[in-house]
Design brief:
single chain; 10 strands; binds S-adenosylmethionine
């Protein structure tokens, strides 16, 4: 079993490659235009990957108050260990300040840069705040958008920015091809749309009409597809090929998620009798994909969108 922390840790390099630089650049320009200190609220921050990334990639203005919330206590605990390490790798000196009530603030400094970070356990759509920017990375596709958009509007200053990168947008593909791939993909997406309690398989493009419908200008949008493939260095020389930076665990986690979703769908279909994929076929497909992963042959591509929008004035 790949736990959530391991999955988010190995997802980091996959996202690093995928993030749409044009959308990110526009987001960084938007942050620069706000007055100091710029208040960023990240909802569903997971293990805090985005904080380390924005600092390392020089995307933050000089003075930042960064509030990161996630409803998963284990991820937040892990983030409290990991974020200082990433910031130190990015050249920041980091102090931990305890408030005596169990909350820790991280104070990170690098030259003129001041970054004050709190990491807390909370439902990001239930809190109160007034931020210059809200980040929701790989989050809006698993929550109820009807609840999320008004909640984010209430959390942002007028004219504040919503940055929603890595929002899933309806593409789950593997290579080499298998005859069951199309049915697997269709069923996996159907599970997201009809069985899972919230979210959906095409939220990326949904944001592109839902936000303008609610009065939000979309400032920038672009693809941020995940591409995970074995290293090709050494190909043809007999050298075993592997996946970079432990990304094999990312694919293992993903195959588990797909299998779990399809098994749940099968259980629902047994009740209503509408299946088009036998459990044996699903197990064969999974076995094939796992052995291709083992031998370093499996290629995975998923389609995501990065969206940057401005809260109505
Ligand atoms: C796919 S993970 C993405 C984590 C991180 N943003 C990243 O890209 O690595 C989704 C995260 O959203 C969190 N989450 C989902 N709904 C939430 C909510 N209502 N409030 C706070 N966190 C939430 C989950 O606990 C999980 O950590």
């Amino acid at each position: 079993m790949t736990d959530q922390r391991t999955y988010l840790e190995v997802k980091r390099t996959v996202d690093d490659r995928a993030l749409n630089r044009r959308v990110l650049e526009r987001f960084a320009e938007g942050l620069d235009a706000r007055s100091s200190p710029v208040r960023i609220l990240e909802i569903g921050a997971g293990i805090g990957t985005m904080i380390g990334r924005l600092a390392a990639w020089d995307c933050l203005p000089d003075e930042i108050a960064y509030r990161a919330v996630d409803r998963d206590a284990e991820s937040v605990r892990y983030a409290r260990e990991r974020v200082p390490e990433w910031l130190e790798d990015a050249g920041y000196a980091v102090d931990r300040v305890d408030d005596g009530r169990g909350e820790t603030t991280l104070l990170a400094r690098s030259g003129e840069r001041r970054l004050e970070i709190t990491l807390e356990v909370a439902d990001g759509f239930e809190i109160e705040d007034r931020a210059d920017a809200v980040i929701a990375s790989a989050v809006l596709d698993i929550v109820d958008l009807g609840r999320a958009i008004p909640a984010i509007e209430g959390l942002l200053e007028p004219g504040g920015l919503l940055y929603a990168p890595i929002t899933f947008d309806g593409g789950t593909t593997f290579a080499p091809r298998d005859p069951a791939d199309n049915r697997i993909e269709r069923r996996y997406h159907h599970h997201m749309d009809a069985v899972r309690s919230a979210g959906g398989s095409q939220v990326g493009r949904e944001l592109l009409w839902r936000l303008p419908d609610a009065g939000w200008p979309v400032l920038e949008a672009g693809g941020s597809d995940w591409v995970v493939r074995p290293c090709t260095e050494g190909a043809g020389t007999g050298t075993a090929m592997g996946y970079p930076d432990g990304e094999r665990a990312f694919l293992e986690g993903l195959l588990e998620t797909i299998d779990g979703a399809l098994a749940e769908l099968e259980a629902a279909e047994r009740e209503f009798g509408i299946g088009d994929l036998e459990p044996d076929e699903r197990r064969r497909w999974l076995g094939r994909r796992r052995s291709e992963l083992e031998s370093g042959e499996l290629v995975f591509v998923a389609h995501n969108l990065d969206v940057l929008a401005r809260r109505p004035e």
